[in-house]
Amino acid sequence: MTTTTLAVLVPLLPFLGAAAGLLLGRTAPGFVRPLAVLPPLAALVLAAVVAARQGGGRAIDAATQLTPTGSVPIDLALHLDGFAVLVAVLVALVATCVQIYSTAYLKDDVRYPSYAALVSLFTSAMLLVVYSGDLMVLLVGWEIMGICSYFLVGHYWETPEARAASLKAFLVTKLGDVPFLIGLFALAADTGSFRITKILAAVAHGGLDHPTLIALLLLAGVAGKSAQFPLHTWLPDAMAGPTPVSALIHAATMVAAGIYFVARLLPVFAASAAALVVLAVMAAVTMIGSGLAALAQDDIKRVLAYSTIGQLGYMSGALAVGDRGAAVFHLLSHGAFKAVLFLAAGVVIHAAGTNSLAAMSRMGGLAKRIPDACWTMTVALLALAAIPPFAGFFSKEAVLVAAEHTAFGDRHVAPAAAGWTVLVAGLLAAVLTAAYATRLWLLAFRGRGPAVPDHGRQPAAMTSVLWILAVPTIAFGLAVGVLGDWFDGHSLTPSLATAVLSTGVGLVGGLVTYGAWRHTTALAARPPVGAVAAHPNAEPALVEAEAITSHTAAYGTIAGAPDPTDPGRLLLGPLHRHAVSGFHLDALYTAAFVRPVQAAARLVRFLDREVVDTYVRGAAGTARGLGTLVRRAQTGNVQTYLGALLGGTLVLAIAAVVFANVYAGA
């Protein structure tokens, strides 16, 4: 088969698996798990073959016009360059591992067939975004991911946290999608096409009349989809969904889509220096704010969620300085180690019976109970903290080197102000990243107290995928020299000065956190805090759902815990109470947007019921009253009808005589 045929099959196979899973979920449940695992696995093999054939060389383009659509045609098009084929391999790999993991994680879940089908559809939509060469076709995958995330985040719909999180994720991302859609139409109007190759060719020849307006409109959609400030607030709350869904959203789909979109259309954004500066500021605020918030969270998954927001900020920063190679390189390495972190967190929550780090810090022996999760999570946290030689070190250094070159004028794609903004924020975020990674590891695996409940050995389907994903977490960065052709052909190797500086500040962040932990452990003899809902024989998904509910019941919030032994509380000081709530952005949005909209809705309801309905009821009452009067005249007595007829005739005759005399006299 040709490369284009194989590429078509890559998103098609998970889609067919989703359709078959939904159709056979109730009638033939034995086929559900094979239909969940085999299509993404086959897509992974085909994506790897497509990547090998493309080889980082010239992009492969193919298109067909299904039907005429007017002056701006919409084509079913493929655009396979080095970025696309590598990202597709990552998406298929993570999706396959998530489906395998889910077979054990939700083994007794009655909604597993629909869950597995939605994960496959989610995967298919992201692969469509990755391979698409037409923006309208890309938009189809973009929106399908939005609706899939709504259903998957709300999988535990019995819990109020999941219901609220799914609705919030849908509404916030749709808020960004409205200007995003307008920006796509404006871009097509300026360039005369939705085809990515034609758009880039038009931009290269100065064919963009409104570059700043278009770039800012598109950035609004990217901020929503990729959880960047100020539309990032949905992502931490989305942790109310199952852990495998979190891994899929954070590592390979949804949030990666926005970054990938900007990388695809970077010349469009580079045509406006103002847009790049806005993107740089957005990335800087996102990196620093999310790092501070992660250091204050008690829910292990919320720590990782804010971590994702910060790492996406690094990718946005790389794009702001005009280096899409560094951005996609960090996207790929982050996808590997973040998938490990979330899937390992699911094992930790199952073993500990809680998602609370405060509760885990009062438990002993957790690392020995789950050695696979402990070791792989340790490796992934080292990669997150950008410690050499793990993948995160090389990819994060590529971002900082790109920012350094722009700041010092060695590159002129973006303004120097954007370079300095990203560089300074990136170094500060490196300190915070190492700090919250160290805090998570110490609280989860170095707790002191009674032994954790014995759940037995974790299922092989859950632990095996951790080691599979740990391989690229360790080795992907070392392969950057071989993969240079896939990243626009320029080197992504770190510079000595930047590597020493960023690694040094990261080590400082980790060591300071370790010192704070040693200081606060003197208080660990206090009674245990945290909500533990351990069920040794329950499936992991049930343990997680109960842990989320019990955490809120115990502390009044899913985010924090009143734990005096938390090193994050010591490090942040008075800033802790602000950081734990995400710097009150949700409260601000509630006051500025939610309450006014609700008040307007109440006003509309009042006007509809008390004003509009009053007139409607009045018209109906008038007709009803007239009908009552007429009905009383209908007695059924013939003599009455004849009398009324003669009486009426007599009245008309008299009236005629009177009028005739009047007119005759005149």
What does this structure look like?
It is built from 27 helices and 2 strands. By secondary structure, it is mainly α. A two-stranded antiparallel sheet has the order 1-2. Helix 4 packs antiparallel against helix 5 (135-153), helix 8 (211-225) runs antiparallel to helix 11 (255-264) and helix 14 (300-320) packs antiparallel against helix 15. The radius of gyration is 31 Å and the shape is globular.
Give the topology:
Blueprint: H1 3-24, H2 32-54, E1 60-64, E2 76-80, H3 82-105, H4 112-131, H5 135-153, H6 160-191, H7 196-204, H8 211-225, H9 234-237, H10 243-251, H11 255-264, H12 266-270, H13 273-294, H14 300-320, H15 324-352, H16 357-360, H17 366-369, H18 371-384, H19 391-407, H20 416-445, H21 460-475, H22 496-520, H23 540-555, H24 567-572, H25 576-579, H26 585-633, H27 638-665
Antiparallel strand pairs: 1-2
**Which value, in Å, is the CA radius of gyration?**
31 Å
Helix coverage percent: over 70%
Q: Pick out the low-confidence regions.
A: none
Strand order of the largest sheet: 1-2
Strand portion: under 5%
Number of strands: 2
Membrane topology: Multi-pass membrane protein
InterPro entries: NADHpl_OxRdtase_5_subgr, ND/Mrp_TM, NU5C-like, Proton_antipo_N
Main location: membrane
EC number: 1.6.5.-
